[in-house]
Amino acid sequence: MATAFLGFIHQFITDINFKISLASIKIVTLLLQEDLINLKLYFTPLLSNLVEKLSDSKQVVRDMVMECCNNLISRNKPALIAQQIIKYLQHANWHVR
């Protein structure tokens, strides 16, 4: 059930309203910490949304994204994550790079 909820909530990570975005990132972080989700279905879109959110102007949002990414790295092989984020090295925003 939590995995289906992740499929719903990850779309709000990229929301323009930072409160909605921050709340959804916190929820994903809690789900990762409690090990309640199976990431196979949503790993790539979740990681893409998180990396794109690093370009947010609010520091609190970027900090929460980093915390969520740290939880992702602790649950998965770092090589798997590196393969997904390597394409963002040429991103226009320096926060993402």
Give your account of this protein's structure.
The chain is 62% helix and 0% strand. The protein is mainly alpha-helical. It has one domain (2-90). It starts with a helix and ends in a 12-residue tail after the last helix. The mean pLDDT is 82.
Show the helix and strand layout.
Blueprint: H1 2-9, H2 18-33, H3 43-53, H4 59-75, H5 78-85
Helix pairs in contact: 2-4, 3-4
Task: Give the tags.
97 residues; mainly alpha; 5 helices; globular
How would you state the average pLDDT, rounded?
Answer: 82
Tally of domains: 1
Q: Percent of residues in helical segments?
A: 55-70%
Q: What is the end-to-end distance?
A: 34 Å
Radius of gyration: 12 Å
Number of helices: 5
Q: Kindly estimate the percentage of residues that lie in beta strands according to DSSP.
A: under 5%
Low-confidence region ranges: none
The secondary structure category is mainly alpha
Overall 3D form: globular
- Count of DSSP E strands? 0
The main sheet comes to:
none
Order of helices and strands: HHHHH
Write a compact overview of the structure shown.
The chain has one domain (2-90). The protein is built from five helices and no strands.
